[in-house]
Amino acid sequence: MIAMRFIGGLTGLALWAGAALAQDVSLPDYAYDMMAEISIATTADGKCDGISQRPKKVQARMLEMLSRLVKDGYDATAAATHFQTPEALAQIARREADLRARHGVAATGDDALCQAIRAEARENKVVAKMMRLR
User: Fold this and answer.
1) DSSP letter assigned to residue 23
2) Tell me: the pLDDT tens digits for 63-106?
3) Residue 17 pLDDT more than 70?
4) What is the C-alpha separation between 86 and 100, in angstroms, rounded?
5) What's the confidence (pLDDT) of residue 75?
6) Which of 7, 44, 116, 122 is least surrounded by CB atoms within 10 angstroms?
7) Gap between the Cα atoms of 134 and 119, Å rounded
8) Which residues pair with 133 in a beta bridge?
9) Which residues, in sequence order, are CB contacts of 45 under 8 Å at separation 6+?
10) Is residue 12 scored above 80 in pLDDT?
11) Are 14 and 22 in contact (CB under 8 A)?
């Protein structure tokens, strides 16, 4: 699942909040879409030859997402914690499956995922900006 690599980084964000904010919240679709884009960049960095993430661009996208959520009335820490829940992971996994289907690659396997990520970067400038492609 493409989200797993990045979710670990969110743990630090969420831990300081304590159990009181660990409540499960439902987030708007744009948050899952943005997290899937972030996950694409971080996953490509670890799995795809010739692709690395641009950490500052990834962080900027994360801050953009959290800022938008806060503007819409969500707690940023609760949102970050939410991305570790089964519901959120399922939302991101669905977006990975959609990415693979949209680009006509196999439903499993790192090579197919990397092909889909490269194809997505050609079409999605937000994703492309978060990565270095060689």
Assistant:
1) -
2) 999 999 999 999 999 999 999 999 999 999 999 999 999 999 99
3) no
4) 21
5) 95
6) 122
7) 13
8) 51
9) 5, 51, 52, 53, 131
10) no
11) yes
Phi-psi region of 12 (alpha: psi -120 to 50; beta: other; left: phi over 0): alpha
Q: How far apart are CA 129 and CA 110, in angstroms?
A: 21
Quick one: DSSP state of residue 85? S
Written as one letter, the residue type at 37 is: E
What CA–CA distance (Å, rounded) separates 3 from 90?
10
Pair of tokens at residue 56: 């500052």
> Residue 129 has which token pair?
């900006």
Give the tens place of pLDDT for each residue, 35-69: 999 999 999 999 999 999 999 999 999 999 999 99
Q: Give the amino acid at 10.
A: L
